[in-house]
Amino acid sequence: MALCHLVVIRPSFFSSPIKAPPPPSSFALSCSKSSSPPPRSIDDGDDSGGPKPKRLSEQSSWEAKDAEGRDYLYRLGQEADNMNIAVGARAGVVDDVFAGDFLGKDSDIVFDYRQKVTRSFDYLQGDYYIAPLFMDKVVCHIVKNYIAHLLNAKVPLILGIWGGKGQGKSFQTELIFQAMGVEPIIMSAGELESERAGEPGKLIRERYRAASQVVQNQGKMSCLMINDIDAGLGRFGNTQMTVNNQIVVGTLMNLSDNPTRVSIGQDWRESDVTKRIPVIFTGNDFSTIYAPLIRDGRMEKFYWQPTHEDIVNIVDRMYEKDGISRKEVVHVVDTFPNQALDFYGAIRSRTYDRSILKWVEDNGGIEDLGKKLLKWRKDEKLPVFTPPKQTLEALLESGYSLLKEQQLIMETKLSKEYMKNIDD
Protein backbone atom coordinates (compact mmCIF):
# COMPACT_ATOMS: atom_id res chain seq x y z
CA MET A 1 0.00 0.00 0.00
CA ALA A 2 2.90 2.35 0.56
CA LEU A 3 3.84 1.97 -3.12
CA CYS A 4 0.35 3.14 -4.09
CA HIS A 5 0.76 6.40 -2.21
CA LEU A 6 4.04 7.11 -3.96
CA VAL A 7 2.27 7.11 -7.32
CA VAL A 8 -0.01 10.07 -6.40
CA ILE A 9 1.92 13.29 -7.14
CA ARG A 10 0.41 16.64 -6.04
CA PRO A 11 1.63 19.64 -8.10
CA SER A 12 1.18 22.02 -5.18
CA PHE A 13 4.28 20.55 -3.51
CA PHE A 14 6.52 22.17 -6.13
CA SER A 15 7.27 25.85 -6.31
CA SER A 16 7.85 25.81 -10.08
CA PRO A 17 5.32 24.71 -12.69
CA ILE A 18 5.64 21.16 -13.96
CA LYS A 19 4.07 19.21 -16.74
CA ALA A 20 0.98 17.18 -16.13
CA PRO A 21 1.84 13.64 -15.05
CA PRO A 22 1.14 10.80 -17.47
CA PRO A 23 -2.04 8.81 -17.12
CA PRO A 24 -1.77 6.44 -14.20
CA SER A 25 -1.50 2.79 -14.82
CA SER A 26 -4.25 0.34 -14.05
CA PHE A 27 -2.36 -0.70 -10.94
CA ALA A 28 -2.29 2.92 -9.68
CA LEU A 29 -5.96 3.35 -10.46
CA SER A 30 -6.87 0.29 -8.48
CA CYS A 31 -4.78 1.44 -5.57
CA SER A 32 -6.29 4.96 -5.68
CA LYS A 33 -9.79 3.58 -5.46
CA SER A 34 -8.96 1.58 -2.40
CA SER A 35 -7.28 4.49 -0.60
CA SER A 36 -9.31 7.54 -1.66
CA PRO A 37 -9.30 10.43 0.86
CA PRO A 38 -12.49 11.23 2.80
CA PRO A 39 -15.01 13.50 1.07
CA ARG A 40 -14.80 17.22 1.71
CA SER A 41 -17.65 19.64 2.28
CA ILE A 42 -18.27 22.48 -0.13
CA ASP A 43 -16.94 25.04 2.35
CA ASP A 44 -13.62 23.24 2.97
CA GLY A 45 -11.98 24.81 -0.07
CA ASP A 46 -8.82 23.53 -1.66
CA ASP A 47 -5.99 22.08 0.43
CA SER A 48 -3.62 24.33 -1.48
CA GLY A 49 -5.11 27.39 0.22
CA GLY A 50 -7.18 28.44 -2.77
CA PRO A 51 -10.39 30.47 -2.49
CA LYS A 52 -13.51 28.81 -1.18
CA PRO A 53 -16.41 28.23 -3.54
CA LYS A 54 -18.54 31.34 -4.01
CA ARG A 55 -21.75 31.41 -2.01
CA LEU A 56 -25.07 31.74 -3.77
CA SER A 57 -25.70 35.15 -2.22
CA GLU A 58 -23.61 37.32 0.07
CA GLN A 59 -26.79 38.48 1.82
CA SER A 60 -28.15 35.00 2.39
CA SER A 61 -28.83 33.97 5.95
CA TRP A 62 -29.80 30.39 5.22
CA GLU A 63 -26.30 29.09 6.02
CA ALA A 64 -25.84 31.16 9.18
CA LYS A 65 -25.60 29.01 12.30
CA ASP A 66 -26.34 29.81 15.90
CA ALA A 67 -24.27 28.86 18.95
CA GLU A 68 -25.61 25.32 18.82
CA GLY A 69 -24.67 24.85 15.17
CA ARG A 70 -28.25 25.00 13.87
CA ASP A 71 -28.95 27.00 10.76
CA TYR A 72 -31.88 29.31 10.01
CA LEU A 73 -33.97 26.68 8.27
CA TYR A 74 -33.77 24.42 11.31
CA ARG A 75 -34.94 27.19 13.64
CA LEU A 76 -37.69 28.14 11.21
CA GLY A 77 -38.98 24.60 11.15
CA GLN A 78 -39.06 24.48 14.94
CA GLU A 79 -41.54 27.36 15.13
CA ALA A 80 -45.16 26.34 15.58
CA ASP A 81 -47.76 26.89 12.84
CA ASN A 82 -45.11 28.09 10.41
CA MET A 83 -46.17 28.26 6.77
CA ASN A 84 -43.15 30.26 5.60
CA ILE A 85 -45.33 33.28 4.79
CA ALA A 86 -43.54 35.33 7.42
CA VAL A 87 -40.27 34.97 5.49
CA GLY A 88 -41.46 34.97 1.91
CA ALA A 89 -39.17 35.27 -1.08
CA ARG A 90 -38.06 38.88 -1.01
CA ALA A 91 -35.11 39.88 -3.13
CA GLY A 92 -32.08 40.73 -1.01
CA VAL A 93 -33.35 38.72 1.95
CA VAL A 94 -33.12 35.21 0.53
CA ASP A 95 -31.08 33.88 -2.36
CA ASP A 96 -32.02 35.35 -5.73
CA VAL A 97 -32.39 31.89 -7.19
CA PHE A 98 -35.48 31.44 -4.99
CA ALA A 99 -36.98 34.87 -5.78
CA GLY A 100 -38.07 34.63 -9.40
CA ASP A 101 -39.25 37.39 -11.69
CA PHE A 102 -42.66 35.90 -12.43
CA LEU A 103 -44.15 37.57 -9.33
CA GLY A 104 -41.78 40.48 -9.33
CA LYS A 105 -38.71 40.92 -7.21
CA ASP A 106 -40.76 40.83 -4.03
CA SER A 107 -43.00 37.78 -4.07
CA ASP A 108 -43.93 37.93 -0.39
CA ILE A 109 -47.73 37.77 -0.41
CA VAL A 110 -48.17 39.20 3.09
CA PHE A 111 -45.40 41.79 3.13
CA ASP A 112 -47.69 44.68 2.19
CA TYR A 113 -50.17 43.71 4.92
CA ARG A 114 -47.46 43.57 7.54
CA GLN A 115 -46.26 47.01 6.55
CA LYS A 116 -49.75 48.53 6.71
CA VAL A 117 -50.88 46.97 9.97
CA THR A 118 -50.19 50.28 11.69
CA ARG A 119 -52.63 53.17 11.52
CA SER A 120 -51.89 56.52 9.93
CA PHE A 121 -54.04 59.58 10.49
CA ASP A 122 -53.91 61.33 7.15
CA TYR A 123 -57.69 61.55 7.16
CA LEU A 124 -57.64 63.80 10.22
CA GLN A 125 -57.53 67.07 8.35
CA GLY A 126 -58.29 70.29 10.14
CA ASP A 127 -57.92 71.72 13.61
CA TYR A 128 -59.49 69.73 16.44
CA TYR A 129 -59.73 70.40 20.14
CA ILE A 130 -58.13 67.96 22.59
CA ALA A 131 -59.24 68.14 26.20
CA PRO A 132 -56.18 68.95 28.38
CA LEU A 133 -57.06 66.38 31.05
CA PHE A 134 -57.45 63.66 28.42
CA MET A 135 -54.17 64.58 26.76
CA ASP A 136 -52.24 64.63 30.05
CA LYS A 137 -53.44 61.14 30.96
CA VAL A 138 -52.62 59.52 27.60
CA VAL A 139 -49.29 61.29 27.12
CA CYS A 140 -48.16 60.46 30.65
CA HIS A 141 -49.04 56.79 30.19
CA ILE A 142 -47.12 56.50 26.92
CA VAL A 143 -44.05 58.29 28.22
CA LYS A 144 -43.99 56.31 31.48
CA ASN A 145 -43.90 53.02 29.58
CA TYR A 146 -41.08 54.14 27.29
CA ILE A 147 -38.93 55.21 30.26
CA ALA A 148 -40.10 52.46 32.63
CA HIS A 149 -36.53 51.11 32.87
CA LEU A 150 -35.42 54.47 34.29
CA LEU A 151 -38.13 54.70 36.93
CA ASN A 152 -37.89 53.07 40.32
CA ALA A 153 -41.62 52.37 40.33
CA LYS A 154 -44.15 49.87 39.05
CA VAL A 155 -45.57 51.12 35.75
CA PRO A 156 -48.87 49.59 34.57
CA LEU A 157 -48.67 48.49 30.96
CA ILE A 158 -52.36 49.12 30.21
CA LEU A 159 -54.37 52.33 30.32
CA GLY A 160 -58.11 51.75 30.41
CA ILE A 161 -60.19 54.72 29.21
CA TRP A 162 -63.86 54.22 29.97
CA GLY A 163 -66.98 56.33 30.14
CA GLY A 164 -70.31 57.05 28.49
CA LYS A 165 -71.14 56.23 24.91
CA GLY A 166 -70.14 58.65 22.19
CA GLN A 167 -67.89 60.82 24.35
CA GLY A 168 -64.98 60.78 21.90
CA LYS A 169 -62.68 58.38 23.74
CA SER A 170 -61.25 56.76 20.60
CA PHE A 171 -61.21 59.96 18.54
CA GLN A 172 -59.44 62.01 21.20
CA THR A 173 -56.85 59.26 21.59
CA GLU A 174 -56.20 59.23 17.83
CA LEU A 175 -55.76 62.99 17.85
CA ILE A 176 -53.13 62.60 20.56
CA PHE A 177 -51.37 59.90 18.53
CA GLN A 178 -51.25 62.25 15.56
CA ALA A 179 -49.89 65.11 17.66
CA MET A 180 -47.18 62.92 19.24
CA GLY A 181 -46.19 61.18 16.02
CA VAL A 182 -47.22 57.78 17.37
CA GLU A 183 -47.89 55.07 14.77
CA PRO A 184 -50.21 52.70 16.65
CA ILE A 185 -51.73 49.33 15.92
CA ILE A 186 -55.47 49.55 16.54
CA MET A 187 -57.60 46.47 17.13
CA SER A 188 -61.33 46.00 17.53
CA ALA A 189 -63.25 43.91 20.03
CA GLY A 190 -64.61 41.96 17.06
CA GLU A 191 -61.16 40.40 16.60
CA LEU A 192 -61.24 38.81 20.06
CA GLU A 193 -63.32 35.84 18.94
CA SER A 194 -62.64 33.15 16.35
CA GLU A 195 -63.84 29.71 15.34
CA ARG A 196 -60.29 28.47 16.02
CA ALA A 197 -59.32 28.25 19.68
CA GLY A 198 -56.30 30.37 20.53
CA GLU A 199 -56.30 32.54 17.41
CA PRO A 200 -57.34 35.84 19.09
CA GLY A 201 -54.72 35.44 21.81
CA LYS A 202 -52.04 34.76 19.24
CA LEU A 203 -53.24 37.73 17.19
CA ILE A 204 -52.79 40.05 20.17
CA ARG A 205 -49.25 38.79 20.72
CA GLU A 206 -48.43 39.20 17.03
CA ARG A 207 -49.80 42.74 16.98
CA TYR A 208 -47.83 43.58 20.13
CA ARG A 209 -44.62 42.28 18.54
CA ALA A 210 -45.44 44.17 15.33
CA ALA A 211 -45.67 47.39 17.35
CA SER A 212 -42.28 46.55 18.85
CA GLN A 213 -40.85 46.16 15.35
CA VAL A 214 -42.13 49.64 14.46
CA VAL A 215 -40.06 51.06 17.31
CA GLN A 216 -36.94 49.05 16.50
CA ASN A 217 -36.97 49.25 12.70
CA GLN A 218 -38.64 52.58 11.93
CA GLY A 219 -37.59 54.60 14.96
CA LYS A 220 -41.17 55.70 15.66
CA MET A 221 -43.19 55.43 18.83
CA SER A 222 -45.95 52.85 18.67
CA CYS A 223 -48.80 51.65 20.81
CA LEU A 224 -51.33 48.81 20.87
CA MET A 225 -54.92 50.02 21.18
CA ILE A 226 -58.04 47.85 21.54
CA ASN A 227 -61.34 49.66 21.12
CA ASP A 228 -64.54 48.66 22.96
CA ILE A 229 -62.81 45.83 24.79
CA ASP A 230 -65.73 45.33 27.18
CA ALA A 231 -67.91 44.39 24.19
CA GLY A 232 -65.55 41.48 23.48
CA LEU A 233 -64.52 40.42 26.99
CA GLY A 234 -67.34 41.74 29.17
CA ARG A 235 -69.92 39.51 30.81
CA PHE A 236 -73.49 40.70 30.32
CA GLY A 237 -76.22 38.71 32.06
CA ASN A 238 -75.91 35.03 31.17
CA THR A 239 -73.52 35.39 28.24
CA GLN A 240 -71.17 32.48 27.73
CA MET A 241 -67.48 32.59 28.55
CA THR A 242 -65.63 30.98 25.64
CA VAL A 243 -62.17 29.44 25.52
CA ASN A 244 -60.98 32.36 23.40
CA ASN A 245 -62.21 34.83 26.04
CA GLN A 246 -60.16 33.04 28.65
CA ILE A 247 -57.07 32.89 26.44
CA VAL A 248 -57.34 36.59 25.55
CA VAL A 249 -57.64 37.55 29.23
CA GLY A 250 -54.67 35.33 30.09
CA THR A 251 -52.65 36.79 27.22
CA LEU A 252 -53.30 40.37 28.32
CA MET A 253 -52.46 39.52 31.92
CA ASN A 254 -49.21 37.89 30.81
CA LEU A 255 -48.34 40.92 28.65
CA SER A 256 -48.80 43.16 31.68
CA ASP A 257 -46.53 40.99 33.82
CA ASN A 258 -43.89 40.25 31.15
CA PRO A 259 -44.00 43.02 28.54
CA THR A 260 -40.57 42.20 27.07
CA ARG A 261 -40.94 38.42 26.68
CA VAL A 262 -43.76 37.71 24.25
CA SER A 263 -44.02 34.33 22.55
CA ILE A 264 -46.03 33.56 19.43
CA GLY A 265 -45.45 29.82 19.62
CA GLN A 266 -41.79 29.47 18.71
CA ASP A 267 -39.00 28.10 20.87
CA TRP A 268 -37.74 30.54 23.47
CA ARG A 269 -34.47 32.23 22.65
CA GLU A 270 -32.48 34.36 25.05
CA SER A 271 -31.97 37.03 22.39
CA ASP A 272 -35.70 37.32 21.69
CA VAL A 273 -36.41 40.42 23.78
CA THR A 274 -39.38 42.55 22.79
CA LYS A 275 -39.52 46.32 23.19
CA ARG A 276 -42.00 47.39 25.88
CA ILE A 277 -45.09 48.79 24.15
CA PRO A 278 -47.85 50.72 25.98
CA VAL A 279 -51.37 49.31 25.64
CA ILE A 280 -54.57 51.37 25.68
CA PHE A 281 -58.13 50.06 26.08
CA THR A 282 -61.35 51.95 25.47
CA GLY A 283 -64.73 50.82 26.72
CA ASN A 284 -67.98 51.81 28.38
CA ASP A 285 -68.12 49.64 31.51
CA PHE A 286 -64.99 47.90 32.82
CA SER A 287 -66.91 46.32 35.70
CA THR A 288 -67.94 43.58 33.24
CA ILE A 289 -64.31 42.54 32.64
CA TYR A 290 -62.43 39.86 34.61
CA ALA A 291 -61.32 41.63 37.78
CA PRO A 292 -57.65 40.43 37.96
CA LEU A 293 -57.04 41.94 34.50
CA ILE A 294 -58.09 45.42 35.57
CA ARG A 295 -56.35 45.46 38.95
CA ASP A 296 -54.20 48.49 39.70
CA GLY A 297 -50.86 46.79 39.10
CA ARG A 298 -51.78 45.89 35.52
CA MET A 299 -54.18 48.60 34.38
CA GLU A 300 -54.39 52.29 35.12
CA LYS A 301 -58.03 53.35 34.83
CA PHE A 302 -59.26 56.71 33.59
CA TYR A 303 -62.93 57.69 33.64
CA TRP A 304 -63.64 60.20 30.88
CA GLN A 305 -66.66 62.44 31.31
CA PRO A 306 -66.19 65.73 29.45
CA THR A 307 -67.22 68.84 31.32
CA HIS A 308 -69.52 71.51 29.91
CA GLU A 309 -66.48 73.57 28.95
CA ASP A 310 -64.88 70.61 27.17
CA ILE A 311 -68.07 69.97 25.19
CA VAL A 312 -68.38 73.62 24.19
CA ASN A 313 -64.75 73.78 23.08
CA ILE A 314 -64.99 70.58 21.02
CA VAL A 315 -68.29 71.55 19.38
CA ASP A 316 -67.04 75.08 18.74
CA ARG A 317 -64.05 73.70 16.85
CA MET A 318 -66.43 71.36 14.98
CA TYR A 319 -68.71 74.21 13.82
CA GLU A 320 -65.92 76.73 13.25
CA LYS A 321 -65.82 76.28 9.45
CA ASP A 322 -69.60 76.75 9.22
CA GLY A 323 -69.49 80.28 10.58
CA ILE A 324 -71.30 79.42 13.82
CA SER A 325 -70.23 81.72 16.64
CA ARG A 326 -69.23 80.47 20.06
CA LYS A 327 -72.29 82.12 21.58
CA GLU A 328 -74.52 80.10 19.24
CA VAL A 329 -72.60 76.92 20.10
CA VAL A 330 -73.23 77.51 23.80
CA HIS A 331 -76.92 77.97 23.03
CA VAL A 332 -77.05 74.65 21.14
CA VAL A 333 -75.26 72.78 23.94
CA ASP A 334 -77.51 74.28 26.61
CA THR A 335 -80.64 73.48 24.58
CA PHE A 336 -79.73 69.78 24.45
CA PRO A 337 -78.02 68.98 27.77
CA ASN A 338 -76.87 65.56 28.89
CA GLN A 339 -76.11 64.50 25.32
CA ALA A 340 -73.00 62.73 24.12
CA LEU A 341 -70.51 64.48 21.88
CA ASP A 342 -71.55 62.48 18.84
CA PHE A 343 -75.07 63.96 19.19
CA TYR A 344 -73.79 67.39 18.15
CA GLY A 345 -71.97 65.87 15.21
CA ALA A 346 -75.18 64.11 14.16
CA ILE A 347 -77.04 67.44 14.30
CA ARG A 348 -74.66 68.93 11.75
CA SER A 349 -74.90 65.84 9.56
CA ARG A 350 -78.71 65.94 9.48
CA THR A 351 -78.72 69.52 8.18
CA TYR A 352 -77.26 68.12 4.93
CA ASP A 353 -80.34 65.96 4.24
CA ARG A 354 -82.37 68.58 2.36
CA SER A 355 -79.41 69.66 0.26
CA ILE A 356 -78.68 66.05 -0.70
CA LEU A 357 -82.31 65.42 -1.75
CA LYS A 358 -82.23 68.60 -3.85
CA TRP A 359 -78.98 67.43 -5.46
CA VAL A 360 -80.65 64.11 -6.39
CA GLU A 361 -83.60 65.92 -8.03
CA ASP A 362 -81.30 68.22 -9.98
CA ASN A 363 -79.51 65.17 -11.44
CA GLY A 364 -82.47 63.28 -12.91
CA GLY A 365 -84.17 61.96 -9.80
CA ILE A 366 -83.91 58.55 -8.19
CA GLU A 367 -84.46 56.70 -11.50
CA ASP A 368 -81.10 57.79 -12.93
CA LEU A 369 -79.26 57.94 -9.62
CA GLY A 370 -77.41 54.63 -10.13
CA LYS A 371 -76.02 55.73 -13.48
CA LYS A 372 -74.80 58.98 -12.01
CA LEU A 373 -73.13 57.49 -8.94
CA LEU A 374 -71.77 54.13 -10.16
CA LYS A 375 -71.65 54.04 -13.96
CA TRP A 376 -70.24 57.42 -14.81
CA ARG A 377 -67.21 57.42 -17.05
CA LYS A 378 -63.78 58.40 -15.91
CA ASP A 379 -63.76 61.51 -18.08
CA GLU A 380 -67.07 62.65 -16.61
CA LYS A 381 -67.45 64.49 -13.35
CA LEU A 382 -70.24 64.29 -10.84
CA PRO A 383 -72.34 67.44 -10.49
CA VAL A 384 -71.07 69.84 -7.90
CA PHE A 385 -72.69 69.48 -4.48
CA THR A 386 -73.26 72.74 -2.64
CA PRO A 387 -73.25 72.30 1.14
CA PRO A 388 -76.05 74.02 3.04
CA LYS A 389 -75.64 77.29 4.86
CA GLN A 390 -75.47 76.44 8.53
CA THR A 391 -77.68 78.51 10.80
CA LEU A 392 -78.67 78.29 14.43
CA GLU A 393 -82.28 77.61 13.46
CA ALA A 394 -81.30 74.69 11.21
CA LEU A 395 -79.14 73.15 13.94
CA LEU A 396 -81.90 73.43 16.53
CA GLU A 397 -84.43 71.91 14.14
CA SER A 398 -82.14 68.94 13.51
CA GLY A 399 -81.50 68.58 17.23
CA TYR A 400 -85.20 68.38 18.10
CA SER A 401 -85.68 65.78 15.36
CA LEU A 402 -82.93 63.58 16.79
CA LEU A 403 -84.26 64.04 20.32
CA LYS A 404 -87.70 62.89 19.19
CA GLU A 405 -86.22 59.72 17.70
CA GLN A 406 -84.42 58.97 20.98
CA GLN A 407 -87.62 59.33 22.97
CA LEU A 408 -89.61 57.14 20.58
CA ILE A 409 -87.12 54.29 20.98
CA MET A 410 -87.29 54.48 24.77
CA GLU A 411 -91.08 54.83 24.99
CA THR A 412 -92.29 52.66 22.12
CA LYS A 413 -91.10 49.14 22.84
CA LEU A 414 -92.56 47.10 20.01
CA SER A 415 -90.81 43.98 21.26
CA LYS A 416 -93.52 43.68 23.91
CA GLU A 417 -96.12 43.53 21.14
CA TYR A 418 -94.28 40.77 19.30
CA MET A 419 -93.16 38.73 22.32
CA LYS A 420 -95.87 38.76 24.96
CA ASN A 421 -93.81 36.85 27.51
CA ILE A 422 -90.89 39.26 27.54
CA ASP A 423 -89.92 40.60 30.95
CA ASP A 424 -89.83 44.29 31.69
Keywords for this entry:
mainly alpha, 16 helices, 424 residues, disordered N terminus, 39% helix, 5-stranded parallel sheet
Topology:
Elements: H1 2-7, H2 26-34, H3 72-78, H4 111-115, H5 132-146, E1 158-163, H6 169-180, E2 185-188, H7 199-218, E3 224-227, H8 229-233, H9 243-257, E4 279-283, E5 299-304, H10 308-318, H11 326-335, H12 341-350, H13 353-362, H14 369-373, H15 392-411, H16 415-418
Parallel strand pairs: 1-4, 1-5, 2-3, 3-4
Helix pairs in contact: 5-6, 7-9, 10-11, 11-15, 12-15
Domain ATPase AAA-type core: 161-305
InterPro entries: ATPase_AAA_core (IPR003959), P-loop_NTPase (IPR027417), RCA-like (IPR044960), RuBisCO_activase_AAA_helical (IPR048571)
Function: Activation of RuBisCO (ribulose-1,5-bisphosphate carboxylase/oxygenase; EC 4.1.1.39) involves the ATP-dependent carboxylation of the epsilon-amino group of lysine leading to a carbamate structure.
Structure description:
There is one protein chain. This protein has helices at residues 2-7, 26-34, 72-78, 111-115, 132-146, 169-180, 199-218, 229-233, 243-257, 308-318, 326-335, 341-350, 353-362, 369-373, 392-411, 415-418; strands at 158-163, 185-188, 224-227, 279-283, 299-304. It is mainly alpha-helical. A 5-stranded parallel beta sheet has the order 2-3-4-1-5, sandwiched between helices. Strand 2, helix 7 and strand 3 (224-227) form a beta-alpha-beta unit. Mean pLDDT is 78; it is low at 1-20, 24-36, 39-45, 80-86 and 107-115.
